[in-house]
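Researcher: Please predict.
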Amino acid sequence: MHKLAVAGILALATLLSSTGAESGGAPPRSVSVLYAGSLVTPMEGAIKDELRKSNIDFEGQPGGSKALAHLIAAGLRTPDVFISVDPALVLSLRDKVASATTFAATSLGIGWSQSSRYASLFSDVAAGKRPLEQALETDGLRIGRTDPKLDPKGSYTLEGMRIWLGAGAARRILGDDENAEQIFPEEDLLARVDTGQADVGFFYRTEAMARGYRFIALPGKAALTDRITYTFATLKAAPHPNEARRFAEFILSGDGRAILERAGLSYLNPPQTLRL
């Protein structure tokens, strides 16, 4: 075969090979993240989609932060990253944590879907036409909240209601702390409101906004804005340390920050590095 023809064939083969590699030949890299269920909408939506553009496969598991911390402590899960509400949960795992930053805050309140059978009632509350306490005491209203034993939001709900109304009035609305008629898993509560199994729920502002719900913060200090924070922790035994670092940059200062701010998170300036 003529030398020029051979050279041409080799050049074409090289071009096709390099084009194939660029067009998706490399397998996606993974980052495994256990995260507070209040972030499920942006995490499983815009965050996952944006990471996919960088050939990173987001392997997320939402849940109550307390329950997720227990899984890590028991060695039942070894993620790259743990995003928790309540920095104390991260500090309780300090032997397993390489670094941690408290980076954002939110507030506690009542959220509801526009399709809720009580949407007009709570729209009146939002417009200042009716007291929130009175609306929450409506006969037949199905309230959803999370388990205070498994999820910080469940604990914050009890605390915020007692700050606002006092223990007696809070109990009239919530019943027992572990009232089975109101308590749903953290990762299911949004779906229960979506489907009408709960008429309203106690939510963080970020999850209500991300879901397109209407939202009313609990009055004054009861919203616990100075207490409810998110902490980003990278684990020492991270299976994918390089991807964990990239994900940290993405969430703390990159495009992920813009996504979470649009979802209602208020980033701290400056963020707070935890001393482990």
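Model: The chain has twelve helices and eleven strands.
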